[in-house]
């Protein structure tokens, strides 16, 4: 009897990752594809969905099958995830009609958000958006932006899709979106039972039939078509689950499976997800149904994390990049070693990492990055460590919000490329005062996609089975002496934004 294998592919901001696992969740093979992101003007961030999203799916799927030596007919299911809260309009053949508008880093729909907030009024806003303000991670204002600014494209649109919906449609011909994305990123147009409120959609946005059908994340919604099989190397008829966003899949991969579990995803951006047994209304964060049935998710996002460290590498440490290119040490690794030599608090230097505006908890697309407290004794090493600390202060703000709402953190997991920087993990532990852990397998969302495909096709009964296969990795205990050093600096971090936001907006 042939072994069972499951494929997962995740499409991210700057790269895509794919994995094949066996029936015991052991990784058989992985593949990575790099791509770019387009920033045509301030606050505009885009991908070419056909070239980047679908192109990476085809590259990675073919490479996984070829380089693993596994027969495509032995792959019993596939799950995909991708950037969350994107919008790409497609025609009836699933051909994109424009470049995809990306998630929270794209803040072009600010006027639309202001209009909707005034149109609905405070009471209706509270009802429709669970007590939170509209933000750049909401998809419906982006659809309204297309309607207002590109009416010819709007009129031709058959479906407005997010990234995972687009990929699943390319694989199967079926247009679906999972509960997590439908009720969060596409609020307020989906009801709790995942039906579409056509009247509400038409009121401000688009026809209800222009939105994808709501499904559970692990539902098998279709099968690989002959056309998709020819391009991906998958067997015709391979089961495909609904899929989800990258952060949700990454949370599953790292063991966020029950209330009290928290994930901090250190990628190009930082995404924070907390699994809760109750819904919480707090305008500083987002709240919606979680992937695990009968639980809720409280989450937020910092727009610049790995992207900020990359900017610093390329701008302030070009000599380390050149050394790496000549066969020397990895530039990020060298930077981390330099940061270790700088004391906690960077000798009074505080960074606001708002280089691409900010999502939660300030929800301000016009926020700006700040280096505050610079003195002649500060070096580029201080600046780098202070940037790592700035992201940690943002994470700590979210942890404080959860705890203010009476929620206990039992399991603090970090995942993503940033976990390779152990000094950053130590800083996060020190700033928050919590023990920080990583999972043994840190490839991230694609691993979660493959495991959810195993659930959807019946190999596992449910999410609870996955806890038997997710093994612990690093455990980083907080240095409480450093924690005390960071307390007043975290307060300055918060007040610095409050005291400069009007000046930021004037810029």
TrEMBL record:
One Pfam match, given by its short name, reads FGGY_C
Per UniProt, residues of the Carbohydrate kinase FGGY N-terminal domain are 5-249
Which CDD domains does the record cross-reference, listed alphabetically? Answer: ASKHA_NBD_FGGY_RrXK-like
Q: Which UniProt keywords apply?
A: Kinase, Transferase
Q: Does the keyword Transmembrane helix apply?
A: no
Q: Which residues form the Carbohydrate kinase FGGY C-terminal domain?
A: 263-455
Q: Which GO terms describe its biological process?
A: carbohydrate metabolic process
InterPro entries xrefs: ATPase_NBD (IPR043129), Carb_kinase_FGGY (IPR000577), Carb_kinase_FGGY_CS (IPR018483), FGGY_C (IPR018485), FGGY_Carb_Kinase (IPR050406), FGGY_N (IPR018484)
Give the source's domain of life in one word: Bacteria
Protein name (database record): FGGY-family carbohydrate kinase
Q: What is the lineage of its organism?
A: Bacteria, Bacillati, Bacillota, Clostridia, Eubacteriales
């Amino acid at each position: 009897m042939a072994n069972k294998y499951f494929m997962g592919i995740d499409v991210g901001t700057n790269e895509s990752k794919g994995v094949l696992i066996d029936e015991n969740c052991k990784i058989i093979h992985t593949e990575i594809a790099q791509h770019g992101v387009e920033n045509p003007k301030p606050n505009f961030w885009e991908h070419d969905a056909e070239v980047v999203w679908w192109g990476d799916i085809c590259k990675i799927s073919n490479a996984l099958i070829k380089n693993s030596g596994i027969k495509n007919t032995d792959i019993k299911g596939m799950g995909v995830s991708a950037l969350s809260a994107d919008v790409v309009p497609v025609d009836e053949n699933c051909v994109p009609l424009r470049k995809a508008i990306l998630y929270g880093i794209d803040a072009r729909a600010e006027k639309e958000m202001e209009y909707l907030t005034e149109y609905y009024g405070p009471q209706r806003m509270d009802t429709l958006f669970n007590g939170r303000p509209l933000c750049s991670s909401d998809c419906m204002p982006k659809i309204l932006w297309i309607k207002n600014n590109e009416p010819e494209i709007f009129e031709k649109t058959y479906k407005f899709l997010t990234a995972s919906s687009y990929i699943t449609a390319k694989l199967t011909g079926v247009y679906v979106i999972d509960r997590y994305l439908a009720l969060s990123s596409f609020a307020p147009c989906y009801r709790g039972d995942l039906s579409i409120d056509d009247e509400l959609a038409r009121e401000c946005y688009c026809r209800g039939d222009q939105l994808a059908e709501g499904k559970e994340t692990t539902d098998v919604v279709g099968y690989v078509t002959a056309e998709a099989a020819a391009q991906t190397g998958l067997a015709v008829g391979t089961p495909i689950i609904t899929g989800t966003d990258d952060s949700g899949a990454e949370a599953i991969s790292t063991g966020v499976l029950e209330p009290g579990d928290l994930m901090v995803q250190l990628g190009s951006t930082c995404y924070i997800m907390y699994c809760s047994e109750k819904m919480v209304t707090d305008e500083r964060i987002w709240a919606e149904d979680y992937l695990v049935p009968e639980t809720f998710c409280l989450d937020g996002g910092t727009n610049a994390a790995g992207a900020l460290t990359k900017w610093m590498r390329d701008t302030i440490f070009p000599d380390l990049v050149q050394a790496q290119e000549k066969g020397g040490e990895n530039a990020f690794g060298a930077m981390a070693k330099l940061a270790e030599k700088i004391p906690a608090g960077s000798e009074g230097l505080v960074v606001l990492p708002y280089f691409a505006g900010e999502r939660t908890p300030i929800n301000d697309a016009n926020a700006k990055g700040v280096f505050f407290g610079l003195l002649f004794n500060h070096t580029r090493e201080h600046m780098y460590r202070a940037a790592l600390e700035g992201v940690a202060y943002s994470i700590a703000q979210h942890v404080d919000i959860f705890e203010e709402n009476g929620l206990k953190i039992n399991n603090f997991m970090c995942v993503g490329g940033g976990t390779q920087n152990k000094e950053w993990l130590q800083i996060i532990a020190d700033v928050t005062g919590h023990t920080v852990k990583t999972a043994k397998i840190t490839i991230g969302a694609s691993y979660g996609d493959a495991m959810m495909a195993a659930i959807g096709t019946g190999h596992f009964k449910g999410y609870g089975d996955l806890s038997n296969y997710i093994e612990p990795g690093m455990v980083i205990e907080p240095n409480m002496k450093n924690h005390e050093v960071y307390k007043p600096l975290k307060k300055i971090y918060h007040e610095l934004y409050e005291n400069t936001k009007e000046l930021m907006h004037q810029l």
